[in-house]
Design a protein that fits this description.
Largest sheet: none
Number of strands: 0
Distance between the termini: 52 Å
Length: 128
């Protein structure tokens, strides 16, 4: 595939900014940056969702949501980054812990939903 030189320049600038911000480049960004045509829209979407200054949800709350989601899906590395962002945005230790617990609870209830349906089916337990 032919690479667009302008996309490559933008990609390299973003990677440098990420490294300056975090002190490292996350694996997701490292891998996707091989394809600027995929990397750039992915970064734009992430920035829109997490950094949108005009959104209805405040910055701290966005990061707390991201913490809950990362906890729910087992995003070990995302969790570390989002916790730091939340702290930088003014989130307290308790707010971060509660966000982790909300995500963990949602993950647990999801697995319970599947497992208990299978259990009910196996033992002819009716449910609606």
């Amino acid at each position: 595939m032919q690479e667009d030189s302008e996309q490559r320049k933008k990609t390299d600038m973003i990677l440098k900014a990420i490294e300056n911000e975090y002190g490292f480049i996350p694996v997701v960004n490292q891998v996707l940056s091989d394809r600027p045509d995929i990397f750039l829209p992915s970064v734009a979407f992430s920035q829109t969702v997490l950094e949108n200054k005009n959104g209805a949800i405040g910055k701290k709350e966005r990061y707390l949501c991201a913490i809950s989601a990362a906890a729910a899906v087992g995003g070990e590395y995302c969790l570390k980054v989002q916790i730091q962002h939340a702290k930088d945005a003014g989130a307290s230790k308790d707010e971060i812990l509660e966000s982790i617990m909300i995500g963990s609870m949602m993950s647990m209830t999801r697995s319970e939903s599947y497992a208990l349906r299978a259990y009910a089916d196996a033992f002819d337990i009716e449910y609606k």
